[in-house]
């Protein structure tokens, strides 16, 4: 990647684009080794203005992946950058419907979506945003067979788990090695004592699933 372009993405030097307006900027160039585009770099360093400029000039970078198969959305979601995640989604929303779904459901080399990444690091606000934009993303599983709901319960991020169940009528319950959400709940019940049951009892959810959930975790 060109040093000037690379440094602009790191330091949020928005003037770089104005100063080089008459030059042809190679925005598709990638870093050595990681194959990151300038959009990936902007996401890593939380430079929203740079991201806006890049997307205006080269919208196709929204879907580009690095060596790990991550888009800029994967990175923003995993690092908990809400404003940047929202910007990327809003930009995708300006595209065709199928293109928007392609971004939200795009899987990296571990078959994880941006939703998986947000759940993995317990970024609740981003999880809410991603599910609001595409409830169907809760049906996706990674290479370990982990659905978003399983991942939340397995890591004891119960606020996220409850949001998924309250919001999505038909989500995937599957997990790794043939386990499902209920298996994980039972295992965590043994580790956490009454915490899981007390937490769940704060919510008045009358679904069969939650009755079953409370039965096994109680």
TrEMBL record:
Keywords assigned by UniProt, alphabetized: ANK repeat
Pfam families cross-referenced by the UniProt entry: Ank, Ank_2
Cross-referenced PANTHER family: NO MECHANORECEPTOR POTENTIAL C, ISOFORM D-RELATED, PROTEIN ACCELERATED CELL DEATH 6-LIKE
The ANK repeat ranges on this chain: 68-89
Protein name according to UniProt: Uncharacterized protein
């Amino acid at each position: 990647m060109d040093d000037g372009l690379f440094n602009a993405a790191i330091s949020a030097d928005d003037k770089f684009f104005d100063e080089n307006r008459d030059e042809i900027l190679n925005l598709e160039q990638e870093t050595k080794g990681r194959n990151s585009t300038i959009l990936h770099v902007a996401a890593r360093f939380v430079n929203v203005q740079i991201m806006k400029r890049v997307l205006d000039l080269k919208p196709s970078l929204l879907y580009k992946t690095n060596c790990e198969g991550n888009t800029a959305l994967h990175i923003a979601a995993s690092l908990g950058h809400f404003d940047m995640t929202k910007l990327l989604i809003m930009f995708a929303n300006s595209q065709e419907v199928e293109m928007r779904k392609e971004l939200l459901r795009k899987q990296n080399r571990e078959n994880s979506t941006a939703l998986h990444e947000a759940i993995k690091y317990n970024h609740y606000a981003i999880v809410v945003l991603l599910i609001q934009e595409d409830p169907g993303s809760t049906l996706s599983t990674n290479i370990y067979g982990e659905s978003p709901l399983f991942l939340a319960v397995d890591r004891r991020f119960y606020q996220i788990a409850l949001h998924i169940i309250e919001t999505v009528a038909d989500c995937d319950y599957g997990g790794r090695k043939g386990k499902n959400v209920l298996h994980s709940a039972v295992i965590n019940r043994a580790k956490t004592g009454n915490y899981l049951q007390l937490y769940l009892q704060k919510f008045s959810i009358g679904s069969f699933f939650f009755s079953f959930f409370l039965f096994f975790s109680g």
